[in-house]
Design brief:
By secondary structure, this protein is mainly α. It has one domain: Sodium/glucose cotransporter (Up-down Bundle). 76% of the residues lie in helices and 0% in strands. The protein is built from 19 helices and no strands. The longest helix is centred in the middle third of the chain and has 49 residues. The relative contact order is 0.19.
Length: 484
């Protein structure tokens, strides 16, 4: 091990403490509803912190500083678009989710179109979530590998196993409350790391600003327009808005949190405020990346970095003093575990409600569904571990891979939701045609065009909606929207 005993004790103590806290919070589960939605009685501020912590995985903690290290502040344009996307969800989609007793986002599609449409969207979510969060797990394992020198597959298994324990027993209530705790931990750890980083610079903050400005590292807005460049203003504002409209409006990972709220007002407050918090948080992690650039200009690394994702991880492990190292590494694991636990619970909930329950029949008891959901939680943990082990053969940064996957699929699902809301003549057959054709369009876009990934969700949702409307001219709805 490259760390001292105090650091190891902090890390092991933190991970054990999270597991124990999650088990304690999630005790007394009375059935599937409690396990999946926390009894629909969670405070709005815990849901807010859970939303932020869930989308702030190790990708944010390590890959965003890596972006600023190699580029500049232009990632913040995407964060601004993400705030706009949240407001669209509050205005257009949230009222529909909180108007009835549902467990997954895709039950709305079942009510509007039928089971086949709901299952197609749910399956796309499950596949996307398994791939994207498997890559997030991979990035976390990089830190453990750097820390201990153990093979990457074992590092993946260790992080995955620690997360699945409290998720398995505690359900959604444990996930949300541990997310809130982990938000505090990882922000505190990042703050300590930045303070030490700046203190190590000979000129402190003044040197940081001077060197960063001279290297154009503080540029936050790129007014150029290009459909192939992801970090320009309109790609950030429009692409980021559509990406978040889809990921936070038509994705079970986030929708499940709104369903835990006491009412629509609490859910709206949590979601809208999370956009402001995330914007500030992205700016903070980009600042860390700029500070890392200035630091390594003053103190060049002995071994060059093989990928931007490793820059902050290397600084944490090589430069932080004993004790503080354990705290910041605990923060890295906090960021990872908050996202992974949410992913496991949401994927298991989608599989149980959208596929398993229709298969076995609604007469099965709540305790039976609870047991099945727990089994599915373990299953998805195994899937994500497998994906994470495969992540070592990627060529691009993890954050680009994760958001490319998200943009590819969320637009298609969002397009189907928009068909249900704004195209009353669309039948289930037309919706499925739009879904399938949208998937085909996105496959061509992703593999045969140079279109930048922030535009994927906008392209996918527009194509799916337009093609679904065209298909409805061939297969119009013959029943009322409530029963179509």
């Amino acid at each position: 091990m490259t760390t001292g005993l105090p650091d190891l004790l902090v890390i092991v103590g933190y991970m054990a403490g999270v597991v124990v806290f999650g088990l304690w919070i999630g005790r007394g589960q009375r059935g599937a509803a409690d396990y999946m939605l926390g009894g629909r009685d969670l405070p709005w501020w815990t849901i807010l912190l859970s939303i932020v912590a869930t989308e702030t995985s190790t990708v944010t903690f390590l890959s965003i500083p890596g972006f600023a290290f190699t580029r500049d502040f232009t990632w913040i344009q995407l964060a601004a678009g993400m705030l706009i996307g949240r407001l669209l969800v509050v205005a257009l989609l949230l009222p529909h989710y909180l108007s009835g007793e549902i467990f997954t986002a895709y039950e709305l599609l079942q009510r509007r179109f039928g089971g086949a449409t709901a299952q197609a969207a749910s399956l796309l979510f499950i596949v996307t979530r398994s791939l994207a969060d498997g890559l997030r797990l991979f990035l976390t394992a990089i830190v453990l590998q750097e820390l201990s020198g153990i093979p990457l597959p074992w590092a993946v298994v260790v992080v995955g196993a620690a997360t699945v324990v409290y998720t398995f027993f505690g359900g959604m209530k444990a996930v949300v409350w541990t997310d809130a705790l982990q938000f505090v931990v990882y922000m505190a750890g990042a703050g300590v790391a930045l303070a030490i980083l700046v203190s190590r610079l000979p000129g402190g903050w003044e040197e940081l600003w001077t060197v960063a400005a001279g290297a154009d590292k503080l540029r936050a807005v790129d007014l150029g327009f290009s459909l192939t460049e992801p970090y320009v203003l309109w790609a950030g504002l429009i692409g980021g808005a559509f990406l978040t409209f889809g990921s936070h409006g038509a994705d079970q990972l986030m929708v499940q949190r709104y369903l835990c709220a006491r009412d629509e007002r609490d859910a709206a407050r949590a979601l809208a405020t999370s956009g402001v918090v995330v914007l500030a948080q992205f700016a903070f992690f980009l600042l860390i990346g700029v500070a890392l650039y200035v630091f390594y200009q003053a103190f060049p690394p002995v071994t060059p970095f093989d990928r931007p994702d490793r820059v902050f991880a290397r600084f944490i492990i090589e430069e932080l003093p004993t004790g503080v190292l354990g705290l910041v590494l605990g923060a890295v694991f906090a960021a990872a575990m908050s996202t992974l636990s949410s992913s496991l619970n949401s994927s298991a909930t989608a599989l149980a409600n959208d596929f398993y329950r229709p298969l076995v029949g609604s007469e099965k008891s709540s305790s039976h569904l609870l047991g099945a959901t727990r089994i599915f939680t373990v299953f998805f943990a195994v899937v994500q571990v497998t994906v994470a082990i495969s992540g070592q053969w990627m060529s691009r940064t993890v954050v680009e891979n994760v958001l490319t996957i998200a943009g590819f699929t969320t637009g298609i699902t969002l397009g189907v939701f928009l068909l249900g809301l704004f195209a009353p003549r669309t039948s289930q057959r037309a919706a499925l045609a739009g879904f399938g054709l949208g998937l085909l369009v996105m496959s061509v876009v992703a593999f045969a065009t140079p279109l930048a990934w922030p535009w994927y969700t906008a392209t996918g949702s527009t194509a799916t909606f337009a093609l679904g409307v065209l298909a409805s001219r061939i297969w119009p709805a013959t029943l009322s929207p409530a029963s179509a």
